[in-house]
Specification:
elongated, 0% strand, mainly alpha, 3 helices, 81 residues
Length: 81
């Protein structure tokens, strides 16, 4: 999740709302804000998990032939004049 930066004027407005809270609620808010500041370690990504091998009984020449034969040739063009 990205960070949000706000001006001091907006912070003062938020503080105006929060200063009237009871002490228990303020402490809970402080705890939640403090926890949000903790740096969480980034998960390591195993690159092998991001890809897989092609599983097919055909050889490469057969696959290439199938790809070429499935191509569509669009010869009719539309004139915009």
């Amino acid at each position: 999740m990205g960070s949000l930066t706000i001006s001091n004027k907006i912070l003062d407005r938020y503080f105006g709302y929060l200063k009237n809270l009871d002490n228990t609620t303020k402490k809970n808010l402080i705890i939640k804000l403090t926890k949000s500041l903790e740096i969480k370690p980034k998960k390591e990504i195993d690159l092998k998990s991001l890809f897989g091998a092609w599983d097919d009984e055909r050889n490469s020449d057969e696959i290439i032939s199938d790809i070429r034969s499935s191509r569509v040739d669009k010869t009719n063009t539309i004139s915009f004049e």
